[in-house]
Amino acid sequence: MSQARKVGIIGLGHVGPHVANSLLLQGLVDELYLCDIDAKKVRAEWQDLHDSLSFCPYNARVYDCGDRYEELAGCDVIVNAAGKVLLCSESRDGELFFGTDAVRTWANRVVDAGFGGLFVTISNPCDVIATEIWHLTGYDPKRIIGSGTGLDSSRLRAQISFACGDLDPKSIDAYMIGEHGSSMLAAWSSASISGKLLSELAEEAPERFSFDRREVEKLGREGGYVSYEGKRCTEYAVANSAVRVIAAIFHDEHAVMAASTLMTGEYGEEGIFTSLPCIIGREGVEQVLRLDLNDGERAGFHASCEHIRSNIARLGWW
To answer: Hey, which residues are catalytic here?
Structure first.
């Protein structure tokens, strides 16, 4: 018998419960540990999730851990979803101090209690929060994964799909890179469909594959704010992006996806977390893949990294 798959979730506002629900509905978890500083909210989510188990493919155990973060030490994966979405009304940078203050309440407590699994962090600003977890704990950076532009790459593919006549987004290989925020950029030089560069397809069949790249990139970048404007939050896509990472970990998929990871010299960048395509498996980030970027894309990536550094500088420890 294989070992039970255990996931802890810190922060049960909008996104955390959707992560929990998606994990249960996909049958990816055997034990689910819920944490939040709001005891009533934890109990409410525990009750609701437990009541839904009859409709899930497999039974699972769900635990109310309150703010007893040490109880997550035995988890395989801890998801950080703590945040205050109203602070993001104009920019994901709005949660900078709230998000980093929240991390400081639990990160060392979990690690000191013996945690040896992987962190998957969603909270904004995602790249700064991932860097902060590493800075605070000294944890193996390959075992800290920010959801990063995994979600934004999905949004980009959705917009390319619309522009190409509702092509299946899963047939499109295109990435947003850099910060999960306003400075992210599309790596158009390497975008492809079924192994063929999009630039080549645009020349061969312009009626279908030629479109306004700036507009498509803009729509991909700002997709979250369409959701925010209508319901004051984003929930489903960001939760599923985190669950996709968890699935790659549990199944040891060696899956390639955009994620925020520590830069160790990629394009000359180091010392911060930001997004590039990564190979992800049971041990976390196995390898960072370097795309063939043109000069403009390289400049945009460096500018995005500088924006992350400017936010870290506001925290006073850089």
So the answer is: 180
